[in-house]
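Example is below:
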Amino acid sequence: MAVVSSLIRLQKLDFWLRNPDYLADELLTDYEQGLVSFEEIQLHVVRMLDGDAPRLHTYPMERYIYGAYEFIDDALAVLKLYEQIEHRRAADSGALSRRDYFLLQKGRDTIAAMRADIPELEWYAQQAVAIGLIADAAVGAAAKRRQYLQTEYADTAHGDVIPSILERVRERAVKLKVVEG
């Protein structure tokens, strides 16, 4: 069984999954800080920044009061209805208590079948692997802080779509010799 602890973490990870330019920039930051090696990030960064990947795999999100946000309750409700996931409150402390999301065996089976039928989904599996390389991605609050360190993200007005940082990240990756110029 796989678990994502807290809706905040789920939303922050979803942002990186859907915005390869922001994820690539985080990998470059961790590389510069010596938290990950060139070998760990290079293929991921190339995959995220080159060719059609940024255009095909970016799914914009709006900025809301607490950062990138999309109302995901409907999507989660469908997954729960078909017994793909389960969610539970971590403690009974009212409406603000943390919710944990569990991928059930039926969900794992669906994912395996979809990946077998739709090879393009491998790109998203690789995004998840890349997210796992980020030092503090496991904590929703830490991921949120990191996202707010991006000027474009932080300066986006509430309700506006968070802009791409693709060109800036591509230039940075070339400067660091992670991708060819």
In short: The chain has one domain: 2-175. Residues 2-175 form one domain.
